[in-house]
Amino acid sequence: MNRLAGKVAIVTGASPNIGGTLAAGLAAEGARVLCADLDPDVAKASAARIEEAGGEAVAMSGDVTDPAHAEEVVARAVETWGRVDILVNNAVFFQQQGLMDMPYDDYRRQLDVILGGSFLFSRAAAAVMIEAGTAGSIINVLSTAAWQGQPGNIGYTTGKSGLINFTRSTAMDLARYGVRVNSFTPTATMPTDPEARAQLEELLSRPGTRSMDFKAQLPLNRLPTPEDYVGAVVYLASDEASMVTGTNITVDGGATAKYWPWRPHDS
Q: Using one digit for the tens of pLDDT, what is the confidence trace for 52-89?
């Protein structure tokens, strides 16, 4: 399919789970994709997955909180393909701690990756889009944790919720240039990669892990996989969404719409 034919995308945080799958999904619709990740092996694996499927991709590694890295990634995309049309701000790191046990420096670092990285990459990509007169699309990856009070995960939930109004504000800043900014909300996700799936299951089964039965709370009765998210992000990146900006698309099996005391799968 070719809904994104001729377009160039940058995806930050290109791990095999959500970011790498979104990168591959954009490429499957015709986009050429720069896969960026802190880990060079992860970035290369994401780009290789796209190339093996017949797409075009390059990999770059670096810290999203480094202003120079953001500029270098955008410049590499322009150098390679002549333009930037799409940015997916997905870079994150997980450190599940609460208010009383999370070191302040770790809290600040988590916010810097989620919010600071999105700021730097959005600014760098938007500058190129504006100069070229490109009607670009910036997509910020949120989480259902952005909309709800999750215990024991203060840095992540604060950072992701901050992206809600970061999306709205940057959408208003960039509207006059024809650059659209939206967010996308996934939820707890079952990886398709067997190793990643095993790691998630091990994490949820650790002694002392806060009681959270994700699957039992979803009205659709299964955790989404990364592939379930591709359609929403492709839509936001495409010209079909040319009048969509400053808003959010949620793909969470009904989790955030559910009335809080209802247990959807009780007999």
A: 999 999 999 999 999 999 999 999 999 999 999 999 99
Contacts for 50 with CB less than 8 Å, ≥ 6 apart: 23, 24, 27, 33, 35, 56, 57
Q: How does strand 86-89 pair with strand 57-61? A: unpaired
pTM of the entire predicted model: 0.93
User: Which residue is associated with the tokens 């990364």?
Assistant: 226
* 57/42 Cα distance (integer angstroms): 13
CA distances from 50 to 25, 174, 196 (A): 9, 30, 19
- Where are the alpha helices (H) located in 98-229, listed in sequence order? 104-111, 117-132, 154-174, 194-205, 214-217
Q: Give the pLDDT score at 218.
A: 80
Q: What's the topology of domain 8-191+225-250?
A: Rossmann fold (3.40.50)
pLDDT digits (tens, 9 = 90+) for 211-220: 567 767 788 8
Start-to-end CA span in the chain (Å) = 42
**CB atoms near residue 119 (< 10 Å):** 18
Question: Which active-site residues does the annotation give?
Answer: 143, 156, 160
